[in-house]
Amino acid sequence: MEIEKLFKRKSLFNLREKKLNTKISNKIKKSSFLVIGGAGTIGQATVKEIFIRNPKKLHVVDINENNLVELVRDIRSSAGYINGDFRTFVIDCGSSLFKTFFKNEGPYDYVLNLSALKHVRSERDIYSLIRMISTNVLNTEKIIDLSINSKVKNFFSVSTDKASNPINLMGCSKLLMEYILQFNSKKINFSSARFANVAFSDGSLLHGFKERFDKKQPLAAPKDISRYFISKKESGVLCLLSCLLGKPGDIFFPDVEKKLKAIFLHEIAVKFLKHKGFKAVVCKTENDARKTFNNLFKKKEWPCFFFNSISTGEKKIEIFFSDSEIKKKSNLQNIGIVKSIIDIDKVKTLNILKFLKNKRFTNAQIKKNDLIKFFKKNLKNFEHDELNKNLDEKM
Fold first, then answer.
1. Is pTM beyond 0.90 here?
2. Spatial distance between the Cα atoms of 92 and 63, rounded to a whole number of angstroms
3. Which end of the chain is more exposed for a tag (fewer CB within 10 A), N or C?
4. Could you give the residue ranges of the DSSP H alpha helices within the chain?
């Protein structure tokens, strides 16, 4: 199920416009692409948009073997085959093996880095936290270095709306990723994209609704948090447009205040159940929701537990850019552009990278609070309020 179907809205980014589609298709036909993290929700959507336009070469890298298999099956079943070189590889992009792969299988005209750990819940322990920052920041730096040496035309790395005035370490890691891009801006052309939550993407709350429904379990959601949502296809189109048409330093985002409205998460649960033919019944506690399930189910009703959020790092609503950033309109439908950070402190950026490569960090010989203090000191616009609660403590 896509967000357009659930809320009865049209797609935000239209590639059916003949002139634009021709321009993109012509670029893709004569170009080679490497998509890293291509088996995730956004990655698969982006790969499909490239594939259907017959690229000269399209290589996809991911550590999720099962998702890569499904990606190939999906493409073969829907789009068939191309004349170009289409292959997938199960490789960790942070490994020395990836470096060998990059040199042997390249060169590439465009490199798209969609590999990321995206959950705020990664803050729950220092080990998950270190892996998230290593993936989102240090791996990006490694891929940039390889791309610089092989002279790619443009390096694209996906960001997030949570990078705007971040209050959690996931958003902080993505803002750091943007800093790393800007730090290398004289050596390589780059672009990025910030966008809203991708509806029903793997591991998302909406995907959780589908899982709970299929497994006949209660639905749970915060009632005081709203989010913007785009569809899987929209996420792929936005990444592709930024990669191919973005000028150096451009960060694309959905600029559609009238069409893209923030939605409270518990309201989506109610609409989702209605779409499935059930009435949502609000329960006072998690235990009540579990206990009453069978009786309510017989009456075409579904128990739900809605609560006020008290988890660390949860914004009440997301934004796509901060007041200190330069925003401009593009000539593309429903797309705005944030110009990448122009007042980046290179000394502090180098200091951050040095810190992240230190054995104290990589070997988890550091506490979360020390990490937060360090980032507050060295990273502009980062705020963090520790509530000592995480999302794994909720149903």
1. yes
2. 6
3. N
4. 3-7, 18-29, 41-51, 65-78, 96-105, 126-133, 139-149, 169-183, 205-214, 232-245, 265-275, 286-291, 293-298, 346-356, 359-362, 368-378
What backbone phi and psi angles, to 5 degrees, belong to 25?
-60, -40
* pLDDT value for 246: 92
292-324 as b/e: b if 16+ CB within 10 A: bbeebeeeebbbbbbeebebbbbbeebebbeee
What is the per-residue pLDDT across 10-55, written as a single tens digit (0 to 9) for each? 778 877 677 888 999 999 999 999 999 999 999 999 999 999 999 9
DSSP 162: G
The β-bridge partners of 111 are 34, 155
Residue 252 corresponds to which tokens in the numbers above?
């694309």
Give the alpha-carbon dihedral of 348, 313, 340, 247, to 10 degrees: 140
Cα(345)–Cα(293) distance, integer angstroms: 55
CA distances from 276 to 3, 84, 211, 213, 303 (A): 14, 41, 13, 9, 14
The residue among 111, 199, 198 whose CA lies nearest residue 148 is: 111
Residue 111: which of 24, 26, 192, 202 has the closest Cα? Answer: 192
What is the token pair recorded at 223? 């009632």
Range from 13-17, 70-74, 294-298, 363-367 carrying the lowest mean pLDDT: 13-17
* 323 Cβ neighbours under 8 A, 6+ residues apart: none
Residue type present at position 10: K
Give dist(CA 193, CA 112) in Å, integer: 11
For every residue of 289-327, DSSP letters joined together read: HHHTHHHHHHTTEEEEEEE----TT--SS--SS-TTS-E
How many residues are there in the chain?
A: 395
- Give the dihedral sign, CA 129/120/391/292: negative
Torsion of CA 59, 63, 66, 71, to 10 degrees: -30
CB 327 within 8 A of CB 252: no
DSSP state of 137: I
Tens digits of residue pLDDT in 169-190: 988 999 999 989 988 999 999 9
> Positive or negative CA dihedral for 272, 278, 280, 285?
negative
Q: What is the pLDDT of residue 284?
A: 95
Residue the block writes with tokens 């002139």? 19
Q: How far apart are CA 251 and CA 122, in angstroms?
A: 25
